[in-house]
Amino acid sequence: MRGKTRISLAALAAVTLLGAAAAQAETEITYQLWGSPQEGEVWQKVAQEFEAQHPDIKVKVEVNDWDSYWEKIRVLMAGGTPPDVFAMDAPLYPDWQSRGVLLNLQPYIDAEPGLLDDIYPITLEAYKTKDGYFGLPRDFQTIVLYYNKDMFDAAGVAYPNDSWTYDDFRKAAKALTKDTNGDGSIDQWGFWAEVVDPEPYWGAVVWSFGGDIVDIPHGKTLIGSDKAMQAWHFIADMWLEDKSMPTQEQLQQYGTDGFQAGIAAMGVSGHWSVPDYAPAKFKWAVAPVPKGPAGRVTGVNSAGFVIAKASKHPKEAWAFVKFAFGPTGQAELAKIGLAVPIRKSVAESPAYLEQTSAPIDHKLFIDALQYAHPKPVFRGYEEWSAAVGDALNSAWTGALGVDDAIAEAVQNGDEALAKNRQ
Amino acid sequence: MIRIEPAPWESRWPDRLAMLVLLLGAIAMVGPFIWMLSTSLKLPEDQYAGGLIPPTLSFENYSKIFEIMPFQTLLWNSIKIALISTFGQLLTCSMAAFVFAIVKFPGRHALFVLLLVTLMVPQQITAIPQFILFKWLGLYGTQAPLYLPSFLGGAFGVFLMRQYFLTIPIELAEAARIDGASLMTIYWKIYLPLAKPALAAFAIFAFLFSWNDLFTALIYLPSDLDKTTLPVGLALFQVQFAGKWTIMMAAVLVSVAPIMVAFFIAQKHFIEGVALSGLK
Amino acid sequence: MNFGLRPLGGEKLWVLLLLGPTLLGLVLGAFGSIFATLGLSFFRWDLLTTPEWVGFDNYLGLAGDRMFLRSLSNTLIFSLLYVPLTIVCAMAVALLLNRRIHGVGLFRTLYFLPVISSPTAVGLLWTWIFAQDHGVLNAMLGGIGIPPVRWLGPNMALYSVVVVNVWGAIGEGMIIFLAGLQAIPREQYEAAHIDGANAIQRLFYVTLPAMAPSLFFQAVLSTIHAFQAFDYIYILTRVGNGNSSVPTLVFSIYRNGFRFFRMGDATAQAIVLTAIIFLFTLVYFRIQRRWEVPA
């Protein structure tokens, strides 16, 4: 979930939030997650409500940015002192689960009939294994199209709507790419997306052109198929020929997120961007992703909770997970607008739909589930995505042609898959 | 240190041409820093405007960096870690250098060569075992891995200090010996005080090395802004404030300035130290 | 090494104590690490599960690992450009400064500034200078009618990184060479002068041979630096997914070891890096020996 890789500053890093003073008899459990300090504060609130109901348990919440988070979890795990509860990204879950370091939650789930009834089934998918659940989803993210209304108005281009195809999208992006100050270099682009990880953009394009990403049972990377290649050429034409997307070097001059920096008229992202975009100086809104030759497809991914097998307080840890997974915890999370609750009753309630994060159509993110494919989840995902991403990067910088880059991506990807079969 | 006297063959070189080349080179060396200073004094909206002279002079970037990031904490962490490391290096390297310089013992030459060979061992090779060791000691996530290794000597420091100790006439030690001084006394009372210039030079080296070390800090303290050092803070800053050049240049300036000030104060020692390391 | 004092009876302990930290450092730091690293390179280990013996698999895997091969070739190209450029520039500056002109001290200080500046900080400064549309370098080129160059783009990034690294290293070499130049006895120049040698001949027959030890020292040092260069490259070439557009061996070790926790791959790469450095140093020693014999 690279979109969430916001490097958090100002305390950013370890915002260790301690609750009330600890009494001796209390059991203290730790919950670690990646995210911003604001996310840490929300979780601190959830933890306090939990503590009010369970006076004998204290929850220590710790937030780190994405990269440091995973390094830390690994080191703590290797040192035999993992956090009791920690956040999991669905694609990485099989890696952790297969190493036998996660607690099997199935017995706990069996003891609570009806616990999973209210949950969107697609979000549970990723955490299911043949031995039961070793994790539960916490929230989900569907990808939608964000657009800068001011730029559309200024260029006289009609706003994106749900009949848009990728061709309409490309045309609009071209019309929105401009040199607004007349200094001879482009300073406004029609579109920006991160095209390294499949989640924000390229996965959806490949799917909507009729291609697919991986075939895990056979250990094959499928992004080089004829249909997928049409998708890659679509992306490359828009980027390298129309030049309606900024290059990495161009983007670097303005920021890391082109839409947020106000240099791109359109962007694609999940709900996690809403709090980031909310303070923007321009007006913006959301629309469904465009349709491709194979229909409209977007991606869905979920973050979840896992409990370390080495936890000394599994019961207390489970109590916390159950609480945060439950209606109260989910409603609290819904309000901050970083993600969509996995609980139907909460997602379809005012807590989520009428959140004050930004005045946009929040229901769109739930509706997107109907045409969403889950982000690939398999053992070795991290290695695979790095291997594929490295090859893709060489296409976007112009070091390799698209066909060569994808061929390399497939080869790299297959090697990574082979290493992780067993 | 550098004394240049006129000589007949030197004047054949056209001095003016040399001066011109040196000036051009100096511009290339210093130009980036001047550009940094100029950008850091511009208003954010003027970052692309004007040339070297800010259209409106503004110091707001400097106050901003302290607001958006605990810069003072990072500065303090870097200073603290660098000072402890420097102390460790000065102490342990001068100890070993003293022994290599004036104490006779079997295998001295072999041991010294062995030590010099380690100059070639890249930091990356020590990084992984060291990481595992520190994790095992429970010191991951603390500042200790950044300064503890400094207390284990080091080829460069021993070499540098020994080089200087060798310039001290051995007769001094021998005379003290006749007066009944022990080795420790000779080290502490004679050699260390005499080696002040070399200690000063090496101190700057050791400080600089620790101050600038991004690799180790990235490994042990990748994001904990309460504990980590300035280089890591800057690397995080790069991501967070991409494109906000005026603020970024202010942050860069603040992190370069302390060393520059120290350099201007102590440059004589420092340059001698570098020269010393080059003598065979 | 026959000079010096013999420790008296009870002082042997003191000698050991004085040497202690350094000895421990040798055992733990350098040699222990080499053995530990070598050992780890025969395992597959992710820190979480028990290490699994894989023999030479990690090394064999490197031969087909495109990212590793790219890193290796980048590192070699980088070093082949960096070492001679640094030495030539530093020597040129030292020769120019080793004469009777005003402001030698000031020049020395200015040329030394990049050496003391934090590469992380200065790396950020260079990304600003190299920026494509608004960077000062392209603006200056634009002033004389040259279209903008993608300094950190795929074709130029490696060279841009070399330039920044050389820029940061000239000062150090300059000081070492200056010290060497000062130590050349003036009689040698006088003799050459009387023999009718011109400036160029004096440079090649007097100065450079006398500078051989400094040159040798600097070549070894620069090579070690070149193979270990990290900070500038990390800052200047970072891309989206935690990769670098100019990955070097050191970067690859860092990424495999501390980002992916592929300790086996990372240690195998570290061993390869060390072997290369040793090889180069060996070559230098050979060259130095040859040089000394006829002279």
Question: Would you write up a description of this structure?
Answer:
- The complex is a heterotrimer of chains A (422), B (280) and C (295).
- By secondary structure, chain A is of the alpha/beta class.
- Chain A has helices spanning 37-53, 66-78, 93-98, 106-110, 121-125, 149-155, 166-175, 198-208, 226-241, 248-252, 274-277, 314-325, 327-336, 344-347, 350-353, 363-367, 381-396, 402-419; strands at residues 15-17, 27-34, 57-64, 85-89, 128-129, 132-133, 136-142, 144-148, 189-192, 214-215, 220-221, 264-269, 284-287, 298-307, 340-341, 372-374.
- Helices cover 40% and strands 17% of the residues of chain A.
- The model of chain A is unreliable at 1-24 (pLDDT under 50).
- Helices cover 70% and strands 0% of the residues of chain B.
- Chain B is built from 13 helices and no strands.
- In chain B, helix 1 packs antiparallel against helix 13, helix 7 packs antiparallel against helix 10 and helix 12 runs antiparallel to helix 13 (245-278).
- The relative contact order of chain B is 0.14.
- The model of chain B has no long low-confidence stretch (mean pLDDT 81).
- Chain C folds into 2 domains: 1-40, no CATH class; 58-292, MetI-like (MetI-like fold).
- Chain C contains 13 helices and 2 strands.
- Chain C has a two-stranded antiparallel ribbon.
- In chain C, helix 3 runs antiparallel to helix 10 (212-228).
- Chain C is globular.
- The mean pLDDT of chain C is 84.
- Chains B and C meet through helix 1, helix 3, helix 4, helix 5 and helix 8 of B and helix 1, helix 3, helix 4, helix 5 and helix 7 of C.
Topology:
The complex is a heterotrimer of chains A (422), B (280) and C (295).
Chain A: E1 15-17, E2 27-34, H1 37-53, E3 57-64, H2 66-78, E4 85-89, H3 93-98, H4 106-110, H5 121-125, E5 128-129, E6 132-133, E7 136-142, E8 144-148, H6 149-155, H7 166-175, E9 189-192, H8 198-208, E10 214-215, E11 220-221, H9 226-241, H10 248-252, E12 264-269, H11 274-277, E13 284-287, E14 298-307, H12 314-325, H13 327-336, E15 340-341, H14 344-347, H15 350-353, H16 363-367, E16 372-374, H17 381-396, H18 402-419
Parallel strand pairs in A: 2-3, 2-4, 9-12, 14-16
Antiparallel strand pairs in A: 1-3, 4-14, 5-6, 7-14, 7-15, 8-12, 8-13, 10-11
Helix pairs in contact in A: 1-13, 8-9, 17-18
Chain B: H1 15-40, H2 60-68, H3 71-102, H4 108-117, H5 123-136, H6 144-147, H7 155-165, H8 170-178, H9 183-194, H10 196-212, H11 215-220, H12 230-240, H13 245-278
Helix pairs in contact in B: 1-13, 2-13, 3-7, 3-10, 7-10, 8-9, 10-13, 12-13
Chain C: H1 11-40, E1 43-44, E2 52-53, H2 57-63, H3 66-97, H4 104-116, H5 119-130, H6 136-143, H7 157-182, H8 186-194, H9 199-210, H10 212-228, H11 231-237, H12 249-259, H13 263-292
Antiparallel strand pairs in C: 1-2
Helix pairs in contact in C: 1-13, 2-13, 3-7, 3-10, 3-12, 4-7, 5-11, 7-10, 7-11, 10-13, 12-13
